[in-house]
Here is the input.
Amino acid sequence: MPSPRIIIMGHLSREGVPQQIEQLRDWFSRRVEVAWIGSTHDQPPPLEGAVLCVVFGGDGTILAAARALAGRNLPLLGVNMGKLGFLAEFNVEHLQKHFDDILAGKVQPTRHMLLQMCVRSSQGKPFSSPVANDVAISAGPPFRMIHLMLSQGGRPIVQYHGDGLIVSTPTGSTAYNMSAGGPIMEPTLEAIALTPIAPHSLTIRPIVVRSDRPLNIAAVKVNPGTMAIVDGQLSAPLCEGDQVTISRLEQDLLIVPHPGRTFFQTLTGKLQWGRSPHESPDARPAGG
Here is the structure.
């Protein structure tokens, strides 16, 4: 019986990542066929029969891998070699401990919705990208207030005056969205959070909307430096009159969860959510 095929992606410019992948090469080869190893900056070739992508890096590496593999229905297993490790839940020890069970299907991947963002520009080239975490419309220099009009499915929702807007997936709700006062959502929900950045009016508050209707953001008044930013990693300039369309991708992102902890345990352990100020920060939830 042939060995399962996997691919490996990593933040290969991060110190320690190439060395860690090389150290595990023999360990992997005894269990699987490694069909391809590459950077998240590379576009993986079509790989028939691949069942898993192991990603070495931090959460940003997972986001880059998710965009590179969008539409391939290939589960991602994140091995944290960064700082927070919210999406990249495994360390090397836990990877080795749970890998055989993951290959055997005993740990099922969870589905996270992906978005597609397109900028129809009146002055430049169109831009499009899959979105794993969020799209942020940021005012940029000279940092004057901008004016955006939001509609969904052709129906107007609201006008935003302020420093910008964050359109977040549930997966990205614990990132920029949360920092800007937006809601935390369970990552497997099918919804979109709309969180204004420093709105001019006290009546404008974050809202959660359905994900099955496309959103359209019209740039009514913007700055020379206003940008549409995808996952904090890719960006496109916005000019007055540009239209940003955000819709749900048909294929979901598949993430292999850590079998030793739940989303809420990760939320508490990594972000201190729901923890009493009198509780010791060293009281971590169990999991291994």
